[in-house]
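Appendix C reproduces, verbatim, an entry submitted by the partner laboratory led by Prof. M.T., so that reviewers can inspect both the input and the predicted structure.
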Amino acid sequence: MVWAHNSHLGDARATSIGQSRGELNLGQLCRENLGKEHVAIIGCGTHTGTVAAADEWDEPMKVMRVNPSREESYEGIMHGTALAAGFDDFMLDLRKGGMDEQARQALAQSRLERFIGVIYRPDTERWSHYMEAVLPEQYDAFLWFEKTQAVRPLDGRQQRKRGEERGGDVS
């Protein structure tokens, strides 16, 4: 199992970074080298909440509010679905046969998808964090969280001291 941000993990060939800029990413390389049948890529999305990120590279992390998702984006569709269904969190199995084919085809249209990573720029979010993507080609499943909460760093008692071996006392 490998964890990475959506932009690194989802198959780049299904996004504008792969299609127009020719960039590769981890998801594409795994599918090409290991075979689609041996790789399961799971993306995540949210409507709003908080995120731990920095304004720029090499700047300190801070907790920021996530802008509500754009209505025309995949996140906007998920938000509308969550509201209509009366629940906040869900999972979509995007593989063929994993969901109603008509719904899968509706999601197979190129739309905006939001990518938030270690950098988050809410004031320029549309240009900084959204790109065109085709969700069922990018991921095998998609986890939806209506509202997220920023990760919190472990406090000093829980962190391993530099150079200390596994299993050692860190208190």
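The helical segments are 6-9, 16-19, 26-34, 74-85, 101-107, 125-129, 135-138. Additional entries are available on request from the coordinating office.
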